[in-house]
Amino acid sequence: MARLTLENLAMTYGHGDPVLHDLSLAVADGQLVSLLGPSGSGKTTTLRIIAGLLQQTSGTIKVDDDDISRVPVYKRGLSMVFQSYALFPHLTVFANVAYGLKRQRISKAETTQRVTAMLATTGLNDLAERYPQELSGGQQQRVALARALVVDPRLLLLDEPLSNLDAKLRVSMREEIRRLQLQLHTTTIFVTHDQEECFAISDKVAVLNQGKIEQYAAPEEIYHHPATEFVARFIGFENFLPVNGTVADHAYRVGDQTVRVNVATDGAAKVLTIRPNQIRLVPEGPEVLSGQVTIRTYLGSAYRYTVDSPLGALQIDGPTEAPVAVGAPLHFTLPAEHLLPLEA
Amino acid sequence: MLDRHNRVLQIIGVIVLALLILPLGIVVVTSFGTEATISFPIKGFTLAWYANIWTQPAFVSGFQSSLTIALLASLLALLIGVPAVYALTRFNIPKQGWFQTLFLSPTLIPEIVIGFALYQTLVISWRLPLWPSLLIGHLLLCLPYVIRLVTSSMLHLDPHIEEAAWTLGTSRPHAFFTIVLPNIRTSIVAAFMLCFINSFNNIPISLFLNGPSQNMLPTAILNYLQNNYDPTVSALSVLLMLFTAALMILMERLLGVGALTTTGTNA
């Protein structure tokens, strides 16, 4: 129930290379914001700095207008859910959830009432007297959420909370997290390397690469208009065509071909990108590009072809009804409305 | 085939058990013998040797000092060992492996050498009285047990559970007592028991560090045997077996089955 502001966060371990450079981020009250990036991108480091488990080399962390940059972890009033759930093995579910309230010296009656209410919200009523090792992964996850939320944290920090669950449970748990987050209106930071997972539940996504934010925007914006080649690669664009020069306003030279796009860029475009499923397969004809299939893989919903074309090697998806053999030619066009020019 | 295999194993098991238990059984039997020297089988039954234990001041005072030293050395080993293990497993300490080896080194050196070295340094060079020297010697004996058992249990404990406690508003020391300690409790009790039993039974170190003013039970038994070969020692051995067994039972009750043999990871 608060705004979070990160200003120029930097982090260096020992004498090594910096893991965060000048990272700034503003999260509005009640939003769920994801930090998305590959391992080593600095997303967990950022989360641990917000929590106070790591001390940043420089920079400021503010919750509302409260500067918590140097406040010790146990006084920050933030809750964290860990990848391993980190439940207290010697305490029952009830005692696990009550732990944070006990530390706040809240009366026994109020503790019982609040814990019971939280167990009901998270669907754990029947498990109150169980021990963590007697619970399934999904149940442990709920206990971890209940324990974090019962203290009314100013921020909820989630560190890859779904990565230890199987695929089916992952989907239902992420909906559960979103439901709770909306219901309690808790400002939440969600760290993940799974693009689909974070797009599904986030208000905004910050894509991190090597300790820098590459793009911070709504999921739809990132999906349709990745700002950089890194973001594009991370969210499923497979084809990157290096631009040799500009022919006209909306036309670029790629290899010895001219390629048209619909959107213009402010500066000079360096690469054009397109998703494999946005390349259109057409019959042979004028203005149609052709290439030879070198690899074919089966994706279930489509075949993916690696095609040796005048534009270089391209990844192209084709329908499962009409498979094209390796070595055979494939004819296609690049629809101007799907080609994105990127400046970086 | 499998049956025969099992049969062989059974026979070996029985032989091993017999070899372990038979001598103890003989000691128990001889403690009731009427002969003036330890002999087997016995000719008559008496409890006189049990009464005789209490007429030997070396046994009574030896028991008292062995008990005190074993208790104090075990407690001190925990007070030094547990924080050391916590630091070694949770903080980024330079030369961590070096410290680990240092703490375990008393197990690598023959105890008789440790005893002699301590005698040379503490008693001869530093002129330390015998009692503190004995305590230091037994502390050295105990420390490796604490380090080894508690380290394995700390390594099994997810470090994130402590962090979770901190984020929920608990300071680091408080989290240690409410979260870490209850989860390594088994290994601490097991380490205490092992320390106590090893210190209580120790001869090599005590041999160098005790004297007329300060004797320990095992060395008192050794001394007694050199001069008298009568069943008083058997009777005393029976009492000590009962004492150790009582400790074991107490431990089972406190920690559940197998606490000693599973090196005390979280139950």
From TrEMBL, chain B:
Q: Which InterPro entries does the annotation name?
A: MetI-like, MetI-like_sf
List all membrane-crossing ranges. Answer: 12-33, 67-89, 101-122, 128-147, 188-209, 229-250
Where is it found, in Gene Ontology cellular component terms? Answer: plasma membrane
The answer to whether the entry has keyword Coiled coil is: no
Presence of the UniProt keyword Transport in the record: yes
Coiled-coil blocks? none
One Pfam family this sequence matches: BPD_transp_1
The membrane topology term of the UniProt record is: Multi-pass membrane protein
Protein's name in the database: ABC transmembrane type-1 domain-containing protein
Provide the protein's localization. Cell inner membrane; Cell membrane
Alphabetized, the UniProt keywords read: Cell inner membrane, Cell membrane, Membrane, Transmembrane, Transmembrane helix, Transport
- What protein family does this chain belong to? Belongs to the binding-protein-dependent transport system permease family.
